[in-house]
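Ticket reopened. Same input as before:
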Amino acid sequence: MQALTNRVKVLEQKPMSFMERLYFPVILKGMGITFSHIFKKKATISYPEEKRPFSPVFRGLHVLNRDEEGKERCTACGLCAVACPAEAITMEAAERKTSEEHLYREEKYAAKYEINMLRCIFCGLCEEACPKDAIYLTETFAPANFTRESFIYGKEDLLIPDPKTQPTQLLEAKGLTDNQITNQKTS
Amino acid sequence: MMLIFDFALFLEKFSLIVVVILGLLGIALYTTFAERKVAAIIQDRKGPNRAGPFGLLQPLADGVKLFMKEEIIPLTASKWLFILGPCLAMLTAMMTSAVIPWSSAIDFFGRKVDLQIADINIGMLYVFGVVSMGVYGIMIGGWASNNKFSLLAAIRGASQIISYELAMGLTLIALLMLTGSLSLKTIVEQQMQTGIWNIVYQPVGFVVFLICAFAECNRTPFDLPEAENELNFGYHQEYSSLKLGFYLFSEYINMFISGAIMATLFFGGYDIPFLNEAKLAETLGGNIVAIMGVLSLLLKVVFFLFLFMWVRWTIPRFRYDQLMDLGWKKLIPIALVNMLITGAVILWLNK
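Engineering reply: fixed in the latest deploy. New output:
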């Protein structure tokens, strides 16, 4: 048969040499190899102390966005739920009252918005479907938990902190250090 | 006949036994930890490092875990033999330590205390007898479990240990011709006097003895009785909780003891290399030299323990026919020839 690539390696099936048949020298050679591995760099990353950087396209837990004035962007159009292949998103829409204009951007908003993190496959299609830039996938992942119920994230888990009333929490959520936060506040 | 009961001697031996047994248990505990650490660093990992500083409390956590597990005796198992199995394994592992000379005698408030539980003149034969009894722990445990995997493992273990004992015995005969004594203490003292360890006279014998020691301890590459991927867990598959712990511990104690015996027979026991102990004892005092001797012996044993682990994480397991082939067709002839040559040379030198 003609080779498809030039990477074919033909193995030589020759009988074992005398040194190989003695077996003992070969063992010593193998032990030399394992001994040299004692001094090699360890591949382990001690997780909680040391974290591996995420790739810029990493898709983790979702957040629900607010605009600059702290109004919720989501209008409960349901496009994310339609786009979701795992059917992890459920929502209930409600109409904005006149007194709630500082809370919600549009006339309609999500009264209830739930994502089941056990169903979610973190494909990011909700993010792509959203016409209002309301849902985003972040670089964190769902922490372990004991009950299934705790993996259904409600609005209180998903919404980002209000930039008006809770600016520090927002900066913290973005993963900035305390130093950076004080720098941003003063500037 | 008058039976004179030397109470001080009883107390001396009793405390020595307690120290040795507790020491062995502690060493076995930390050998499991060392095994995991060595396995990790050989495989480019870090190993247990969460429990306590450097993970040093890990063996305690493992021990507590073993205690907390449910003690199960299978319904179809033969109950008494099932319990007897791990007891025997532990007992025989511990019993061998009785004849090992840990160091020269120390001076304890005017009383000369030998750091050896029993200096019997058939020490080497005693070791042999007890070690061959060790196979009963495996056999009885495997048979009493009433499980086909355990039974298969027990049969394997029994035939393996019996096969390798032959070659081991033959190497020891060669050594015996050299030393002329079966007492381990005498063997060590001879090596200390001449300053030349027996390994120099018996390199081939040592290698054969080492290979047989691996087989006797059921360590890789001879761990067929507990071959995980063939026999699930081998002879201790049905065991849980502390009875399993006894089996696992006895393996490590066996390793330690065989290391100690190899050090005693071939590497001068508690002899400190390139030092004249008798001269040192005059300047430093006998007790300090004795303690240094213990440390020297322990250091040699630790090296052997590391060797056991090192080999385990290097070499894959033998196939059963290869195992038998190596034991009967290679090691026994080598040991026989070694014995013949040793005998001939001794005769020739003595004319």
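The beta strands of chain A are 62-64, 89-95, 108-116, 135-137, 152-153. Residues 62-182 of chain A form a domain with the Alpha-Beta Plaits fold (CATH 3.30.70.3270). Please confirm and we'll close it.
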